[in-house]
Predict the 3D structure of the following.
Amino acid sequence: MSATKTLFRNDAYAKTASATVLAISTAGHVILDQTLFYPLGGGQPGDRGVITCVGKADTQVLDTRNNREVPGQILHIVAQPCDLQVGDKVTLQLDWALRYRRMRVHTALHLLSVVLPYPVTGGAIGECLTDTKIEGRLDFDIPDNQFNKDELTAQMQAMVAQHADVSYQWITDAQLDAQPDLVKTMSVQPPRGVGKVRLVKIDGLDLQPCGGTHLNNISEIGQVQISKIENKGKINRRVRILLAP
């Protein structure tokens, strides 16, 4: 069975799209020929939304995951019972408000990795289910914790004020291997498997491999603050960020 075409990689702002049902897994997960829904990975939660089909009840997408059994295929975890069948022509409607919050956090975390230029040992984008809790965190390999939250916040906000554009470029796996310094994360490796890797570029500020969804311009991050710095081991420091609604 063919891989799922990932529409979100080319246009993270697309809110609706058409697709065809390729299969329904034994667990009841829906597999489409293409999708707007980002699957859980790289610290970013899976997208939610609705799949509609003429003459059938709407199908709620509760989560989105990569299919471990078929590389490149995406599973849409849907509410049961599901009326969809193989061959159905459907319309995808992304939970845009939720996705956009996560895009703001994800792009802000890239800026955090610039403010703190240390190896990243882990990270996660919050669920961001409401406007009152738009948050994320990165873990860094840092020997001490002599950082001031207000100073770090001011540095990040100064970057946001630069209104830098976010763009993408692709390099081969071999080119990435020849430039290991591009990879900041120690725990999560860039998505591979198709012979090329996508780089996310924030003009004048950052360039690193990433398969997630991002803003077009960092000004959309808005107000950001370092909310907490925690010790998570001898040399592991967890830095949390919080964004304004």
